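Notes, p. 3: input format for complexes.
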Amino acid sequence: MDKIEHIGIAVKDLEVSNKLFASLFGEKHYKEEEVVSEGVITSFFKTGPNKVELLQATKEDSPIAKFIEKKGEGIHHIAFAVTDINAEITRLKNEGFTVLNEPPKKGADNKLVAFLHPKTTNGVLIELCQEIE
Ligand code: ZN
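Output follows (133 residues plus zinc ion):
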């Protein structure tokens, strides 16, 4: 894995949280994008070389809605950039991790993404993402 690509934070109300994080970072988000298949709307912030993704559910059975129901708002996942997501999926499966998306799916911010089940990663939901050329 190359680096942390972004940290994903589950929020109840994107409009409220956009304001909160803009005042925290001193800068507005640079993009907002809905991922219909996932039932989420996302908002991206840059802090120097790092990115933060806010996620708000757009429907009741969205994974983000379920997460907030169980755990409340907060850190939802950590995303790592990879250069070859399919090779990385094969490697991690061989290491015993449970990969939730195979083949990888189209995520926000022009990425191919796959998640690892938090049961196999100490309770942390990990996203692998590869930039789509
Ligand atoms: Zn993400």
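The first helix runs from residue 14 to 25.
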